[in-house]
Design brief:
The complex is a heterodimer of chains A (101) and B (631). Chain A is mostly helical and 101 residues long. Chain A is 77% helix and 0% strand. In chain A, helix 1 runs antiparallel to helix 2 and helix 2 packs antiparallel against helix 3. With 631 residues, chain B is mainly alpha-helical. Helix content of chain B is 72%, strand content 3%. Chain B has a two-stranded antiparallel sheet. The longest helix of chain B has 48 residues. Chain B is globular and about 115 Å long. The chains are: A mainly alpha (101), B mainly alpha (631). At the A-B interface, helix 1 of A face helix 25 of B.
């Protein structure tokens, strides 16, 4: 089966859905974080695919931006998770609902 | 005297100043000083009133209204704050300030032990101020201000001893009853304004006399009727009279000043002032006469069986006011004013006398527990006797002349009115002498302690009594009947403002005969009173007497016909319209907001996973929207 552009789109959709499901279902903050990254990269893949389909390099420019932003976000997100672990000795996000009380 | 009338504003100013001083500083003011301020204020007003009276008497042309300032100005309507200086108003000024001063002096002693004495004088001055506004105003609006003012003071003074629940209820009753009448006055005033475009007496009466201004009879009758309703409230006529006997809850000098001598005559003043209107509406005038006569008889029958010294006098006041309305109703306006004057003298005297008795009895008002007081308080006894003779209409005393004038005017109008009025006059003689005999003659029926306490009142109280007694005797000679004298001073004096409309001139023989009949009838009634009450036996009243003692059950009737249904209606409205309707609506809004908040709160669970789920859901929904709906 020859691989064409449409397959990339379905792969991107699959990765994004896995990311959403993981974010919704898991309680471990690090896993959730990884799933978010997965979603971002699914979008990156989508953009690159579209770039290829339309023969336009603009989308690739966005991909680089997203990578940079994702790197920065990882730094902040991991720092938050580390702080959370120091405070409550757990990375289970259900513990965080205690903030409301 | 020149332009002395320009200073008319001083007359109400002095009592106002007295009220302000006493009213603002009553907590710190020494009692004596408060009393002096109150008396001096009225005395100053009296002096100026005398000056005004002399000026009016010597004036050739009518004095124009004294305009102080522009009061209401709206579009074409312009109502100035103006005072009317003429014969009618100055006569009332003299009565109000003169008798008012005597009663102020009396009060310094009577109220001397009361903790609220300074406040009392403040109210009293405010009352005199309002009453002066009422009679001085040159238009109906100023009169209305005074009219409301005296109603307020009446309320304040009836409920002066406000710690007693009954007294405050009596005050409320008086206020509400007066308000019903006031509404009539107000509607009448608005009718005048709408139809004639003015409230000023001179312009209004000018238009009434102007043949070019044609008004339908019905309009004028409605105005006259509305004014009369106002008068029935203030002057205690059927059907609004029941507040006056209850008003006796106030201190006795107040009863004398407000509820006998001055305020209650406001209705008479208003109708006498509006005589031009009433002369044009004979039908309403007839109503006035019938109501007046009915009140005179009804109140007199009640007075016959009352045991409270002040209640007897109160019903006698209602009855005498009925006489005055009868006089107005038969068109004898000056006669009514004449009776106002003589009545002010002898009724103030009688009330102050009863105050002196109550003072000596230590607050006891039941005449069944009195008797033989004459031995202990000679001055009070003699002056009270003078008052009784005057009100009964014994020749030589003032009441004779005024009452006889009313009776002969009634005879000239319709002999049936005369007969009924004579009946009321006979009852007057009976109950007044019943009161006198039970109080001052015979032997004492109270407790031993009260007997020791009996004493003549101090000079501050007896002096006004003596002055009023003299006035009660000589006051009648200003209005001698036609057959006795060519010159009737009071008719001549008032002729510039008000004259007796279509008075039937009776033949001298008829008039002498009428006088003779009434004198004989009155003397017979006094004799009956003497023989019945000389050795009183107080048994429980049965039959008609019991009905009379209970005032024909009028209060109960009003209670069941008006008050109860009104309360029931209010109760229903309170339960359904107020609590369920309005309260339910307002509370319902609050409850629904609270309920909504409670439900919405559940969304904020704090579960991060849930938030993300909702976010994703939102994204999906937006995506679907953008994909399927918004193309």
């Amino acid at each position: 089966m020859p691989v064409n552009s449409t397959h990339y789109l379905f792969l991107s959709l699959l990765l994004f859905s896995i990311g959403i499901m993981g974010t919704l279902m898991r309680r471990n903050a690090i896993i959730i974080f990884m799933c978010i990254e997965l979603m971002l990269n699914a979008v990156n893949l989508l953009l690159v695919a579209f770039s290829r389909i339309y023969g336009d390099a603009d989308a690739q420019l966005f991909v680089f931006f997203i990578m940079v932003v994702a790197a920065a976000e990882v730094a902040v997100g991991l720092a938050i998770i580390v702080m959370m672990y120091r405070k409550v000795h757990s990375v289970d996000i259900n513990i965080l609902n205690r903030l409301k009380h | 005297m020149g332009n002395f009338s320009q200073f008319v504003w001083l007359v109400p100013l002095f009592p106002l100043i007295g009220f302000l001083i006493n009213g603002l500083f009553w907590k710190r003011m020494p009692k004596t000083l408060g009393g002096i301020i109150g008396c001096v204020a009225i005395l100053a007003s009296f002096c100026i009133s005398v000056g005004l009276f002399l000026e009016v008497r010597s004036a050739v042309a009518p004095i124009p209204p004294v305009v102080l300032f522009e009061f209401l100005h709206s579009g074409s309507l312009n109502i100035p704050f103006a005072f009317q200086v003429d014969a009618l108003s100055t006569l009332f000024l003299l009565i109000i300030t003169g008798i008012g001063f005597l009663i102020h002096v009396y009060s310094t002693s009577y109220m001397g032990h009361d903790e609220g004495m300074v406040k009392y004088f403040a109210y009293l001055n405010l009352f005199v101020f309002s009453m002066l506004l009422l009679v001085l105003g040159a238009n109906y609006l100023i009169m209305f201000i005074g009219w409301e003012g005296v109603g307020l003071c009446s309320y304040l003074l009836i409920g002066f001893w406000f710690k007693n629940r009954d007294y405050t209820n009596a005050a409320k009753k008086a206020f509400v009853m007066n308000r019903i009448g006031d509404l009539g006055f107000l509607v009448g005033m608005l009718l005048v304004l709408v139809n004639y475009g003015t409230l000023s007496y001179n312009e209004f009466f000018g238009q009434l006399h102007n043949p070019q201004v044609v008004m339908p009879q019905a309009t004028m009758s409605w105005i006259a009727l509305c004014f009369f309703i106002g008068a029935t409230g203030k002057s205690a006529q059927i059907p609004l009279y029941t507040w006056l006997p209850d008003a006796m809850a106030g201190p006795t000098p107040v009863s004398a000043l407000i509820h006998a001598a001055t305020m209650v005559t406001a209705g008479i003043y208003m109708i006498a002032r509006s005589n031009a209107l009433y002369t044009l509406t004979p039908m309403i005038l007839h109503v006035v006469a019938v109501i007046g006569l009915a009140t005179a008889i009804l109140a007199a029958t009640i007075a016959v069986r009352q045991y409270d010294i002040k209640k007897v006098l109160a019903y006698s006041t209602v009855s005498q006011l009925g006489f005055m309305f009868l006089a107005l109703g038969v068109g004898a306006y000056t006669t009514a004013v004449f009776h106002v004057m003589t009545h002010a003298f002898f009724k103030a005297l009688l009330f102050l006398g009863s105050g002196s008795v109550i003072h000596a009895m230590g607050g006891e008002q039941d005449i069944r527990k009195m008797g033989g007081l004459g031995k202990h308080m000679r001055i009070t006894q003699v002056t009270f006797l003078v008052g009784c003779l005057a009100i009964s209409g014994i020749p030589g005393f003032s009441g004779f002349f005024s009452k006889d004038a009313i009776l002969s005017a009634a005879f000239g109008h319709d002999p049936i009115l005369y007969v009924l009025a004579l009946l009321a006059a006979m009852m007057t003689a009976y109950y007044m002498f019943r009161l006198y005999i039970l109080t001052f003659t015979g032997s004492f029926r109270g407790t031993e302690e009260q007997h020791h306490h009996l004493h003549e009142s101090p000079a501050a109280m007896t002096l006004p009594l003596v002055v009023l007694a003299i006035l009660s005797v000589v006051g009648g000679y200003v209005g001698l009947p036609e057959v006795m004298s060519e010159h009737n001073a009071i008719d001549t004096f008032l002729s510039s403002v008000v004259t007796n409309a279509d008075v039937h001139h009776l033949a001298p023989g008829t008039e002498w005969m009428l006088m003779g009949i009434s004198v004989v009838a009155v003397v017979i009634m006094i004799a009956i009173a003497w023989s019945v009450n000389r050795k009183p036996k107080f048994v429980e009243n049965k039959g008609l007497a019991k009905v009379l003692e209970n005032k024909w059950y009028v209060d109960e009737l009003y209670e069941s016909v008006i008050v109860r249904p009104l309360q029931a209606l209010s109760g229903v409205l309170d339960k359904y319209a107020e609590r369920r309707g309005i309260d339910g609506f307002v509370n319902g809004i609050g409850k629904s907001v609270k309920w909504g908040g409670d439900k919405l709160r559940l969304l904020q669970s704090g579960q991060v996973g849930f938030y993300i789920f909702v976010m994703v859901l939102g994204i999906v929904v937006l995506f679907a929207l953008s994909f399927f709906v918004i193309k």
